[in-house]
């Protein structure tokens, strides 16, 4: 069974190893939502990177395997909006994973479309008492719009509803370039209505 605390420690190890290789990472996904007051279940932690998968991800994979971790690297095809995923596991003595981290790469050399990841990673904020950095709310919204699934849209509504102090102009500036379905304003309106119901 995956242990959330063990996954957090593993994410810190992966981030530190990446940093030694000159690769910057940032917490995204459900764990980043939780940092920003929206908690939903997840068994793994996601770290964003923006590197060439054939060099940066391969180097990180080799370094982590040297540290005794199990890894699986999935390369992208040219149509993939992601640039590959490196799954990292810490195994118990019985061979079962006790911690899981996915390093999600947003640089696909075969795809020219821009992504919000470079800015999100660069602006990520350090977490207290941790080696991890987490993307800011506005960049998390941009990443969710870039992903574009129904669950991602629902996450945007809940994220904005739970963070009344968020600067919506900053959200619009960061996320609008990646709002390919034209849904951002509708999602903001839903979040504001949800806030009103919670009063």
Q: Percent range for helical residues?
A: 40-55%
What is the overall silhouette? globular
Spatial sequence of strands, sheet with the most strands: 1-2-5-4-3
Q: Quickly give the structural class.
A: alpha+beta
How many distinct beta strands? 7
Report the end-to-end length measured between terminal Cα atoms.
39 Å
Number of helices: 8
Low-pLDDT parts are none
- Beta fraction: 15-25%
Oligomer: single chain
| Arithmetic mean pLDDT | 94
> What integer value in Å does the Rg equal?
17 Å
SSE ordering:
HEHEHEEEHEEHHHH
CATH topology type of the largest domain = Beta Polymerase, domain 2
Looking at the overall shape, the CATH architecture of the largest domain is: 2-Layer Sandwich
């Amino acid at each position: 069974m995956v242990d959330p605390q063990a996954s957090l420690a593993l994410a810190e190890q992966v981030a530190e190893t990446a940093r030694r290789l000159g690769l910057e990472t940032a917490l995204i996904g459900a764990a980043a939502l939780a940092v920003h007051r929206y908690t939903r279940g997840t068994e793994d932690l996601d770290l964003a990177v923006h590197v060439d998968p054939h060099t940066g991800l391969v180097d990180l994979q080799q370094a982590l395997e040297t540290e005794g971790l199990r890894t699986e690297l999935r390369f992208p095809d040219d149509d993939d909006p992601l640039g590959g995923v490196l799954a990292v596991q810490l195994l118990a003595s019985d061979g079962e994973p006790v911690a899981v981290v996915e390093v999600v790469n947003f640089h696909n050399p075969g795809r020219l479309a821009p992504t919000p990841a470079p800015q999100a990673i660069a602006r990520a904020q350090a977490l207290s008492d941790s080696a991890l950095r987490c993307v800011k709310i506005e960049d998390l919204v941009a990443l969710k719009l870039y992903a574009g699934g129904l669950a991602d849209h629902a996450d945007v509504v809940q994220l904005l509803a739970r963070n009344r102090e968020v600067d919506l102009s900053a959200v619009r500036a960061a996320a609008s370039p990646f709002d390919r379905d034209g849904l951002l304003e509708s999602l903001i309106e839903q979040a504001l209505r949800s806030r009103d119901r919670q009063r």
